[in-house]
Write the structure tokens for this entry.
Amino acid sequence: MAITAALVKDLRERTGLGMMECKKALVEAEGDIDLAIENLRKQSGLKAAKKASRVAAEGVILTRQGEGFGLAIEINSETDFVARDDNFLSFANKVADAAVAAKQTDIAALMAGELESDREALVQKIGENITVRRATIVEGSVIGEYTHGAKIGVLVSLEGGSEEIAKQVSMHVAAQNPQYATPDAVPSDVVEKEREIVTAQSEGSGKPAEIIAKMVEGRVKKFLAEISLTEQPFVMNPDQKVGQLLKEAGATLNGFVRLEVGEGIEKEEVDFAAEVAAAAKG
């Protein structure tokens, strides 16, 4: 059977793949478009596996709310360009919807079946590694959520208060990135490490030991306040601490989570000038 331009166009529209790849698939299938599609689907897993070693540190953070809980999920791509692609965003939203519907944070369990097939097909279509990296849940009677440019996602859980207060605190978390909910929640080893550092810094001051001890405790207390959500000045009203805001709103903080795209992933540094120079030399 002749491989016509119309046949190639039809396969391209049905798969979203490039013209040359569609033509090759049709040639191998001797013009049988259904067989070509079947063969391409069989090949998609191999293509996805080949791209799995490439670093996917761009992407989006999406948040959703379920009954009595909030969910945040990170879906990654290799480039920011793809992270803004409609096909990628459609897939990402489908994954987020499925995760909240199942209240699922186990990525392997979430992606088993149809979603993994969708991911592999998207890898083949776009030509980049696509990964669903992590999902997390917070529970509570009042959930606030905020995403900043799809690059930062925050969930805040309160008992009491209102969704508006929870959202405002979520915006504060996005901007200020507190590490812990309260000073009491900071692990003892973190506190002791900071105490060691400020003690070493203070010992060369020449001040009496009792003064140094007070200086150290003062600086440790300041450190704990800076990294604890309830002790931070509220970003929308720096004269008020977040803890005071919550108290006045009749709310108690259960917890929060803040995800940022690519955090903790070692990105490959690419020297594009060197790549171009190397290509020019052949």
Q: What stands out?
A: The chain has three domains: 5-51, 54-139, 183-248. The longest strand covers residues 251-260. The chain has twelve helices and eight strands.
